[in-house]
C-alpha cells in the first residue's frame, strides 16, 4: 500500500462502514484490474541487501525513479517512502524489508497490464543499473537472515514489527522477507461481490500452487514450494485465512464489516503521526472510548487504514484483492492477473468456477490451504489433485478471456497471457520445483546462482 488514507470525515454509525464498502460497486463497463507486485532488491557486487540510506540505497532508487517517471514523492518525516502517479493512479511503495512494490493503475485489460508492468521494470532496471542493483523474481529472499534484512523507515511498520511476535511466530518473516503478486478486481453489487469472494477464496490455494516460487530461505531449501504462503499460516490468525464465514448463508457487506470490526487495530493516524494502539478495538474508537486516545472518534480514514491491515486470502475493500501468489518474472505476474480476470470478469466462467468449488466444505478448503505450500500441484481436494483442478480452472479462465475478446494491436486476445500458467500446470512442475532441481544440480547446492538467473 503506497500511502495511508487521509479523510477526517467522522463516522457516526456502523452503517457508514457498510456503505463505504458498498460504494465500491461499479457497472460492468467500468470494471478494471489493478496488478501489484513486490520485488527484493540486492547489490549485484556482493549479493547483499539494500538499506534505505546511502548513495546507492533505496532512497536513491526512489529519487532516481522520481526523476525518470515524474511521479510525485510520498513523504514521511521528511523522507521519500514512495511515489504516486497522480494522473494515472499507479504508485510505488516500500515494503518493510525494502521490497520495491508497484501498485498498478486500474486498467481496462491485460494488454495494458503487461505494458504497464514491462515499463515499470524497464524503469527500475535502468535506475537500478546506475546504483549497482538487481531485483529478484522470487517470493522470498533466498539468502539473508531476518537479522540481516534492512528495515524501512515507515512508522506503521515499526508498530507492526512490535506487535507481530505477540500473535504469531512468522509475522516478521512475512513483513521483511516475502514478495507477492496480487490483482485487484471490481464487483457490480453485493451479490456479485459475494459470488466472486466465495469462488476466489476457494480457488486461492489453486493459484498459490500454480505460482509457487519461494523454495529457499537462509541459503538453503526450506522444505516448501511456497514458503511465503506457509508463513501466512502463522502470522496472525485474527486477520488472515480462508474466512469460512464468507460461505455461510446471509453473508454480505455487513458480515464482513462485523468481522473487520472485531480484528484488533494496529494504529490510528492523526495528521502525520501514527499512534500505536496495537491490539485495541475499532469498536472502542467508533464509540469514542479508545483507552489510548480518549475522546478520539473514528473517521473514514481510520476505517480505510484499518481495513488495509486485514490479510485474508482474499481481501474486501472497495474492490477484491487476490492475495495468494508468490511473485515471479514478467510473464508470471501478468499470468496471475489473467488467471483471475478470465474467471471473475466473465459470468459463464464465474458460474463454472462456482460449480467446481461449491461442494467443498470448510474443512476441505482449510486442509487444501494447509497442504498447498508444501505440495503445490500434488496436493488434493475432494478426491482430485490440485493439478487437475488447476487444469479445469485455467480452461474456464481461457474461455472467459476469449469471450472478453480484448485484442492488442497485433489482434491477439488476452488468452495469450495465460500461457505461462498453462505450461506449468500441463507439466506438473512449478517454478519452485524447477529451481530446486537447479539447486541440487547445476547450482551445486548454492542459492547464489539465483541472483543471476532469477532476476528481472
TrEMBL record:
Provide the protein name: Glutamate--cysteine ligase
Task: Write down the EC number.
Answer: 6.3.2.2
The source's domain of life comes to Bacteria
Q: What does this protein do?
A: Catalyzes the synthesis of gamma-glutamylcysteine (gamma-GC).
The answer on whether this UniProt entry bears the keyword Nucleotidyltransferase reads: no
| Keyword annotations from UniProtKB, A to Z | ATP-binding, Disulfide bond, Glutathione biosynthesis, Ligase, Nucleotide-binding, Transit peptide
InterPro entries tied to this protein = GCL_bact_plant, GCS2, Gln_synth/guanido_kin_cat_dom, Glut_cys_lig_pln_type
Pathway given for this chain reads: Sulfur metabolism; glutathione biosynthesis; glutathione from L-cysteine and L-glutamate: step 1/2
Outline the subunit composition. Answer: Homodimer or monomer when oxidized or reduced, respectively.
One Pfam annotation reads: GCS2
What is catalyzed by this enzyme? L-cysteine + L-glutamate + ATP = gamma-L-glutamyl-L-cysteine + ADP + phosphate + H(+)
- For the protein in the UniProt heading, the enzyme class is ligase
Upper classification of the organism? Bacteria, Pseudomonadati, Pseudomonadota, Alphaproteobacteria, Hyphomicrobiales
Q: Does the keyword Transport apply?
A: no
Family membership: Belongs to the carboxylate-amine ligase family. Glutamate--cysteine ligase type 2 subfamily.
